[in-house]
Write a structure and sequence with these properties.
By secondary structure, the protein is mainly α. The protein is built from twelve helices and no strands. The protein has one domain. About 80% of the residues lie in helices and about 0% in strands.
């Protein structure tokens, strides 16, 4: 696969999702939302929020690579995962939380060091229903569909025509772009894409990146839903020495996890 095709397929995926979402918003939503209770509205938006993404991925899978997943090979790969390897993925997940924190806090860090008045810390509470539907999106749909497309397919196909560096960068950029308009998430997702590509290239087992994706999203979901104390503690450090020490610690922990899992599974390459 050439670079242009990779970019166009990513654009097609995003375009389909926007188009389907627009169709739901224009033709279905006005007819049903006025007659629904508040709880029913949460169910409605929770379900319709997932449908465009799922349909868009299925269309792109069908058009680009119909045999993206073999059931028999999938069972074989799943059986090859060992408990100790999951520990390495947990190390990477913890490391990424500390490593990514300054990337998410960039605007706050800039304001702090430029003596600009900081916005007060706010923690948004979510209902259990909203957390449930958010969980479906970030813990099931995103890890499975995104890893199959951006790692197994896009990255795998790019490797057939380009160097590892080019393939990793292009697939990671494409993966990062789909997280727009959340600009704060662009760099963290780009870095995650690089890590996932490295793990997939070394292990040739997509289950490792799916599990890693699940764990990192689970960490995010738990923190944004129940992590008020954690964020208060993190922001309370005021970007001092301990804050940046945790950043360095996160890099080290992620590196150890990546090194361990790629070496432990190099025989699967």
């Amino acid at each position: 696969m050439n670079i242009l095709k990779a970019i166009l397929l990513t654009a097609l995926l995003m375009g389909l999702e926007v188009l389907i979402s627009f169709g739901v918003y224009e033709f279905i939503e006005p007819k049903v939302t006025n007659s629904l209770s508040s709880n029913s509205l949460i169910h409605y938006f929770g379900i319709t929020g997932q449908i465009p993404t799922v349909i868009a991925y299925f269309i792109v899978f069908y058009l680009s690579y119909r045999a993206i997943f073999s059931y028999n090979k999938g069972i074989e790969k799943a059986k090859g995962i060992k408990p100790k390897h999951l520990l390495y993925l947990i190390l990477i997940t913890i490391g990424l939380e500390f490593f990514d924190r300054p990337l998410f806090d960039f605007s706050k860090i800039y304001a702090y060091f430029s003596d600009t008045e900081l916005e007060p810390f706010e923690f948004s509470e979510s209902s259990n229903l909203k957390i449930f539907y958010r969980g479906i999106s970030v813990l099931i749909i995103a890890p499975i569909f995104e890893e199959l497309f951006f790692r197994k397919f896009l990255f795998g196909e790019l490797l057939k025509k380009h160097s590892s560096i080019v393939s990793v960068i292009v697939s990671s950029i494409c993966f990062s772009i789909i997280h727009l308009p959340s600009y704060r998430n662009l760099l963290p997702t780009f870095i995650f894409g690089i890590i996932a590509c490295l793990i997939y290239k070394k292990t040739r087992n997509i289950f490792y990146t799916i599990i890693l994706h699940f764990l990192t999203n689970l960490s995010w979901l738990l923190l944004v839903s129940f992590g008020k104390s954690y964020y208060e503690w993190s922001y309370g450090l005021n970007y001092n020495f301990n804050y940046w020490l945790l950043f360095i610690f996160g890099i080290g922990l992620s590196y150890i996890g990546i090194k361990k899992i790629t070496v432990a599974n190099k025989e699967l390459s």
